[in-house]
Amino acid sequence: MTDADLLARHKAVLPSWLALYYDEPIEIVHAQDRRVIDSTGRSYLDFFAGILTNSMGYDVSAISDAVRKQLDTGILHTSTLYLIRSQVELAERIAKLSGIPDAKVFFTNSGTEANDTALMLATQYRRSNQVLAMRNSYHGRSFATVGITGNRGWSASSLSPVKVSYVHGGYRYRSPFRALSDTEYIDACVADLVDVLETGTSGDVACMIAEPIQGVGGFSSPPDGLFKAMKEVLDQYGILFISDEVQTGWGRTGEHYWGIQAHDVVPDAMTFAKGLGNGLAIGGLVARGDLVDCLTANSISTFGGNPVAMAGAAAVLDHIADHDLQANALARGNELLSGLRASGHPLIGDVRGKGLMIGVELVRPGGLEPDPGAAARMMEETKARGLLIGKGGLHGNVLRIAPPMTLTADEAAEGLGIITDSLAAIS
């Protein structure tokens, strides 16, 4: 059966809105380290890691061994109705790593579910359905998380269980404040936050949720310190601050273990997923104990915190620490950022990011007009040269570069060369 045959079957039984990359989508059938192989035997260097999920790469023996050891017990699942030792142990580690005082952890199966849980807790704790979110944000595909997603391309419905107000700050490149200095930009965004609170809400807002670096939004981020300044305002109103670390957590930004640490602030809650499982379905929330405990009804998570995911996640945390992958993410990321910025290509309007979260915004030469067509062509050209990258941004014109955190210097140089050659080809 060819990929074309599989694509036809895919279209027949799966939703039309289930996005696929490339004019001729590929099936990945084998992988090792940072390389994947499709059904035709073609090899690719992976610079998107399953949307930042395969954070350690592929076929990592320490992680596979931990999963196999759990499988050998015969127990894939028991449910949270029973004690799960590995769940308790992983929760203890994450609570300590979070820096949140008296933290507690709740495990889910995805980032969407983690953010949905955060909204449920915050609105219950504050007895309010009002939420602040960032423009150009993305927080998931559930009913509530779509309702707080500030990107039209991913917001399928105006209906929502929460009332959301959007504030400036997360996407600087096209912001009306883009020409300001860092300090002036922060002041302008904080003033906007105050104005939104005073004019667009009744004051008793439940929470503000923000990605330290906007993922789907094109790896955009504000100047360091914005969220500290915003939290000072939120604290005056008693509003909770939730940091969405689904893409920025576990050292990927290089400079810090959590993305929000760049802002020198401790949030009331953080959500996580993706890279913690290295491909295993896992998500969760770590937050102040009183916030986590505020529910007055019974609840469980049938699959959240299951023994297999817990075993794999614990091995991932060990692998990050044992191989100093946070430092590696910083070093390899700086190499890629420097190379991309040095190219001076007229299609490149902005190169941004931290560590191994890099966005390259493509524009029509000589201005700021987005060029989504160039981004689409780049996807095909890099694929043809053996490199997989991602695409995003409000206008679909941003290349998303996020290799596994185990990326080597040689692989970084190889990928950079392919991107440079591909830019030349589409010119």
UniProtKB/TrEMBL annotation:
Keywords: Aminotransferase, Antibiotic biosynthesis, Pyridoxal phosphate, Transferase
Top EC group: transferase
InterPro entries: Aminotrans_3, PyrdxlP-dep_Trfase, PyrdxlP-dep_Trfase_major, PyrdxlP-dep_Trfase_small
UniProt subunit comment: Homotetramer.
Any one Gene Ontology molecular-function term assigned to this protein's record: pyridoxal phosphate binding
Homology family: Belongs to the class-III pyridoxal-phosphate-dependent aminotransferase family.
Superkingdom of origin: Bacteria
SUPFAM superfamilies from the UniProt entry: PLP-dependent transferases
PANTHER family: ALANINE--GLYOXYLATE AMINOTRANSFERASE 2, MITOCHONDRIAL, PTHR45688
KW DNA-binding (keyword) present: no
Gene3D superfamilies: Aspartate Aminotransferase, domain 1, Type I PLP-dependent aspartate aminotransferase-like (Major domain)
Necessary cofactors: pyridoxal 5'-phosphate
Species assigned in the record: Amycolatopsis thailandensis
E.C. designation(s): 2.6.1.44
Protein name from the UniProt record: alanine--glyoxylate transaminase
GO biological process per UniProt: antibiotic biosynthetic process
